Amino acid sequence: MQWRGCSLRVLVVALACSSIAVAVPAAGAAPPQWSTPVTAGEAGTIIAPAVVVDAEGVATVAWISRDGATSIVRTSRCTRTACATPVDLTDTTVTVSELDLAIASDGAIVAGWIQRSGAAASIHARSYRTGQWGPDAQVYAVQSPFDLSVAAFADGASVFTFRTIGGAGSTGDVATCSGYLALCSQTQVESGLSVSEIEVGSNGAAAGLLALTTLSGQDRQVSAAPLLLAGGTISVGNTTRTTLAVATTVLGLTVGVDLDGIATVAWSQGADNLMAQRFPVAQVPNASVPPVVASSVDDIRDGSIAIGSDRAGRTVLSWSVTPSAGGAGQVVRSLVYVDGTAQAPTTVLGAALGTTRNPALAVGGDGRVVLAADRGERVITRVRARTASTWTPRTVAPDSGATIQELRAAANADGQTALVWIAVVGTASRIRYSSLEAGDAPRVRFASRRATATQITMRITSNVAGRVSQVGRYRVGSRTILACRARAVRVRANRPRLIRCTLTGRARADRASRNLRITFTTTLRPTGEPPVRQTTRYTLRRRS
C-alpha cells in the first residue's frame, strides 16, 4: 500500500516520515546550548522582528527594514548555523508600519502587515508553503487599520484582528481568509464602543479565540468570542461575545489557546494584578469574576504578558514588573498551570541581575520553557527542561558594543527554540538569531507502516517506557469521522513495537469510493509522567 501526503504537524509534534531513527541523547550527555548568533539581515533601521519554528527546527524570521524613505518587509529562513539570503515580501512603492507572523499546525506560515501608499493604508499578507512564498493578498482596504494581530489555522485558514477609527472612537475589526489567502472577508465586531485592545490566538489547528477590551462609561470590559475552523473556513459574522470581566483599568490583553482548545486570556488590572480566565474555546463562560493570579506592589509592564502551552496541556504565563522601589531594573516572573490549576508564581529573572528588558517566552511541545531578556549587550535566558522542573541559566554570546532591542522567542513541538533580536551599533541595525537544540523529551518515532483491508500497522519506538495508544480520524465535509482505533500497548525504552489501528466499518465503506486523509493521534503515557500526544497525517489510498 502506497502512502502519500505525510506532513508534519508543527504545534502538535514532529514525527519522522521515513525509516531514519532520531537520535536520543544519552543519559549524562551535555545539556543543549545556544548556538553562536548569526545575522539574518542588516539595514539602517530594523523594527518589528517576528519568528516561528517549523517541525524540522528551521526558523522563519521576518522584520521591517527601513533605509531612508524605504520601508519593506523582509524574511529569512535560519538553521542552527546560518540564515539564508533575505527575501523581500514587499517593494519600495509602499511603506510598512506593522508586522506579525504566525504558523499553522500543517506547517503553513502567514506574514501579515499594514502598508501605506500615499494617504491610503491597508492590510496585506503572504503565505509560505511548499518551500516558497505565495502571492501578495489584500486582506483589508477600507479604513486606516492599526494594532494588527495574526493567527494561522490548519487547511489554509487565517484570522487578522485590528482596529480602525470610527465615529465613537476606535472600532474592533476581524478579517478571515481561506485557501491560503485566496479569499478574504472582513467583519466589524465592535463599532458602538471605543476599543482599546483586540487580540487573537489559536492553537494552529482548528481552535482560536478573539478577545477585546472596550470602554463603557468609566469602566473597561473584557470580552471574548470563539473562532472555530469548519470546512476550511472560519466565520465570525454570527459569533456572540461573552463578557469576562469589567474593571476601571485593563492593560496588556493577551490570548493563548492550547492543543486541546483550552483558551487562556490574561491581562493586568489595577496596574499590579495579573488576571486570567481559562475555558474551552467552544464554551466561553458567562460573565464571572476571574481569579487574581498574581498580586504585588510592583507594576506589571504593559506588553510584557506572554502565554505558551506544551502538548500535554500545561500552560505558562510570564510577565515583567517594575519594582515599586524604583530604578531601571525589571523582574521577570512566571506561573504554570498544571491540570488547569495555577501554581505559585516564581521569579525567574530577578533584580540582582541588573537591568533586564524585552522579556520573551517560548514553550515547546515537549514541555521545555525558555524565558529570555536582554541586559545591555547580552541576551540572558533561563531554561526549564519541563514545565515543572527547575530553572537553569543558559548563556547567549554577547553582541559587543551593541544595544539590544525587541527580543522575540519561539519553539516547535520538540522544544527546538529560536531567539531573535535587533542589535544596534551606531546607525546600523542587524537581526541576530540563535537557537537551542531539542532535548530528550518523551516521544514516539515511526519507522514503517503497512495497511491491509482492516488494519493500519505501524512500527514504533518510544524513547521512554510506558503505554502507547492511537486513534485515527478523517473528515467528510464538515464532519469528523472515526477511522480506526488501536488498543494501548506497553513499550520499553528504545525497543521497537507494533501498534495496530483497526479500521471501522464506516472507514472501510468510505475507502471504497475515495482516498482517506487520516489524522493519527498517538498518545504516549510515560511511566510516572503526564501523557504526550503526537499527530501526523497520511493519505490511505482508495481500495475498491
Report on this structure.
The chain is mainly beta and 544 residues long. It contains 1 helix and 43 strands. A hairpin with a 7-residue loop joins strand 32 (378-384) and strand 33.
Features:
single chain, 544 residues, mainly beta, 8-stranded antiparallel β-sheet, 6-stranded antiparallel β-sheet, 1 helix, 43 strands, 1% helix, globular
TL;DR of this structure?
By secondary structure, the chain is an all-beta fold. It contains 1 helix and 43 strands. The N terminus is likely disordered.
Strand content: over 45%
- Number of E strands: 43
> Strand order, biggest sheet?
1-43-42-39-40-41-38-37
**Which value, in Å, is the CA radius of gyration?**
23 Å
Which structural class do the helices and strands define?
mainly beta
Overall 3D form:
globular
Question: Are there runs of 5+ residues with pLDDT below 50, and where?
Answer: 1-30
> How many distinct helices?
1
